[in-house]
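Title: Prediction job returns without error message
Component: structure pipeline
Severity: low
Priority: P3
Assignee: unassigned

Description:
Job completed but the reporter wants confirmation the result is attached to the right record. Sequence as submitted:
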Amino acid sequence: MQSRLMAMEEGKDSAAAANRANQYRVWPTLRLLQFLLVFLGLGIVFSIVSMYMTRYFGVQNVVPVAVTQSKVLPCFQEPKSSLERWIRPPSNLLHKMNDSQLFWRASFVPQIKEYPYKRVPKVAFMFLSRGPLPLSPLWERFFKGHEGLYSIYIHSLPPYEPDFPPSSVFYRRQIPSQVAEWGMMSMCDAERRLLANALLDFSNEWFVLLSEACIPLHNFSIIYHYLSRSRFSFMGAFDDLSPFGRGRYNDQMAPLVNLTNWRKGSQWFEVNRKLAVDIVKDNLFYPKFEQFCRPACYVDEHYFPTMLTIQSPHLLANRSITWVDWSRGGAHPATFGKVDINEEFFKRIIEGETCIYNKQLSSLCSLFARKFAPSALDPLLENASKYFGY
């Protein structure tokens, strides 16, 4: 009997031990299941909170991340302020804008006259050329020492690509160019293209159109002060009664342009920023001149003078500041080479004129002259300091 009791006790102990062993096996599984449920619950709560914050506070990521400052600097540093980014001129003139995009961008005009930064007004020298600039060494000497007071833009016939060295003031000053034909609207398109690119620099205040055959007749300081102090822009716009003036008028341009409004002037001009914008933004006069002023009506002699005479006659000096010699007759002015370069020749140009400057009589009338052949370069360089003061 005692032995049976002991066997029963031992059986109970074995069963209890087995039961405890089974409990120990189940317990980790329950703990793991509880842990997973808690983790899942926290994940759901976290997702709901993140969605709420993203929706109402614009927070894109609520996970705290250690912020470290990158030691890798970009190749191009952005301007310090949004104003600098707006007023800074393009570093690369070879942009991808077409003419419509360029003219639209260039026609932006601030409505407040005072500039909210220190602005140094510059002269934009715009070279309309067929290819190379053979007189560029003379211009290099003219510009030397006056950095920050001028900008340069070159429009040449494609596919010509200039090869100025990095040390040149003409280096990378080429703008996207297209074919420009003499006497056709494509010539005015090229001039508008130059103006539009120059207008992208808010510091450019005066805009001078030049050819590869032009030279400066005075040093930079004289020309800068002459332009900056003038109350008028130098665009020739006169009423020519001859067959080469009024005789080119087409009455289909009326009533927008009447015969009494028809003007003629030199292709080579200087305008201020306001008139430059007016030329670039024009879509009213352009179609009329494109359609009804074709050879023997030479549109580059009539489009801008007529339009500006109608719109802003009070801003025009009604004369050019680029000297040319038409005394030999023909469709083009005289060209001067090496044998023509002497002191008497330039004395006649510089001292032989009188004109009106700011409504007063002046003997300083022409700032530039054309046309000069490449052969004139060497004697011009040799005598530039004597003749022109640079």
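Comment from assignee: result matches the submitted record. The longest strand covers residues 204-211.
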